[in-house]
Amino acid sequence: MKTALITGASRGIGTACAIALAKSGYNIVLNYFNSEEKAHNIAKIIADNYSVEVLAVKADVRDKEQVDTMVQKALEKFEKIDVLVNNAGIALQKLFTDTTADDWNDVICANLNSVYNVTHAVAKNMISNHSGSIVNISSMWGQVGASCEVAYSASKAGVIGFTKALAKELALSNIRVNCIAPGVIMTDMMSSFSEEDLKLIKEDIPLGEFGTGKNVADAVAFLASDKAQYITGQVLSVNGGMVI
Question: What is the CATH number of the domain that holds 38?
Fold first, then answer.
């Protein structure tokens, strides 16, 4: 049985990805940092409803040492990691002139450095097995940029560049690296927006609806699967047509 590691899996898109991959028959390594109770609840739901094993592991993906320990625990239990979903991240909405150096570093570290940390720890196992699929969660703002989200947009653009470069490097090891660029997905990150703001945003979405975690998770499950075995280095937009 194959194993998938999902970062930031205790809520939102990460939880949806964990469930989608469990439904597809993967054992799940469910990474969390702050939301321990939620993570263990999700782990129990998965274990109770799907014929897979689940390992919930606390690790701050910004910290390379914690990440290395997490991956070692996963390998001790499951021996290999077949799929990695780099989902963990944070948002920041601020004028660029109000964005402090600490703000900038926090966002880059959480959204981009974390992708390096986890991928670096997992890639060696995938290379030795000559097999693997890595799916990175970027954003449509990483493709086109967003006003008042310069740090976030830059971090997510970095994820796209990381994906394309690494896909070329790991292809000879039969490892595929792809990226999802979600649009406006109704998760905790949207909690700061007013009803009026949400109404205005929805008017800009051609399909007329906000995305869900499941919409993103279904795309992740596809890219992780053998159905996508000839797809690598690509950015799949899941945005309802908001960015084309």
Answer: 3.40.50.720
Q: 235 with 179: CB under 8 angstroms?
A: yes
In a domain, 243, yes or no: no
Number of domain units in the chain: 1
Active site residue 152: yes
Give residue 167's domain range: 3-238
In a domain, 100, yes or no: yes
135 falls within a domain: yes
Point out the catalytic residue in the list 26, 32, 50, 152.
152
- In degrees, rounded to 5, the angle at the alpha carbon of residue 135 between the alpha carbons of residues 94 and 92 is 5
For the residues 189-214, what does the mean pLDDT come to?
89
Residue 89 and residue 54: Cα distance in Å, rounded? 22
- DSSP code for 185: B
- pTM for this prediction: 0.97
SS3 204: coil
For residue 157, which of 146, 167, 168 has the smallest C-alpha distance? 146
Tokens of 79: 């021996």
Give the mean pLDDT of 220-241.
98
**Contacts by 198-204 with C-beta closer than 8 Å and gap 24+?**
204/242
**Cα–chain-centroid distance for residue 209?**
22
Closest CA to 132 of 64, 70, 61, 71: 71
For residues 142, 152, 28 and 180, what is the CA-based torsion angle, rounded to 10 degrees? Answer: -10
